[in-house]
Design brief:
- About 30% of the residues lie in helices and about 30% in strands.
- It is of the alpha+beta class.
Length: about 120
């Protein structure tokens, strides 16, 4: 399976269990690795035979900016399901970064990574 990766998609969301996270929001960063067969697109040099990663990026940002959830695990799952709606995408790995999580000790990042596929 071939891979198309999008890294560092940024969007403001209002996800979290604490009231201040829901009120103030924060920037989330998303990395995607889409698993698909790129051979038909490459053979014909045809965008219609692959995934349009610009559209995927817009849809992922819309999920992050959309309905708030308590857990980034839930957000990550929603993003994965949005990616799998694209016909050519057979598998997706999604990492959601929450670099401004409300943690009381110094840290660089909090991430949740999942892999989902059509089964």
């Amino acid at each position: 399976m071939d891979r198309v990766a999008l890294r560092g998609l940024k969007a403001r969301g209002y996800h979290g269990v604490f009231p201040e996270e829901r009120a103030q929001g924060q920037t989330f960063v998303v990395d995607l690795v889409l698993g698909l067969d790129t051979r038909p697109a490459a053979a014909d040099d045809d965008l219609a035979k692959t995934v349009h990663y610009g559209i995927v990026a817009e849809e992922v940002v819309a999920v992050v900016e959309g309905e708030p959830v308590n857990l980034i695990e839930t957000l990550t799952e929603r993003i994965a399901q949005a990616c799998l709606k694209h016909e050519g995408v057979h598998e997706v790995e999604v990492t959601v970064h929450k670099p401004h999580a409300p943690i009381t000790v110094p840290f660089d990042d909090v991430t949740v990574t999942i892999t989902r596929s059509r089964v």
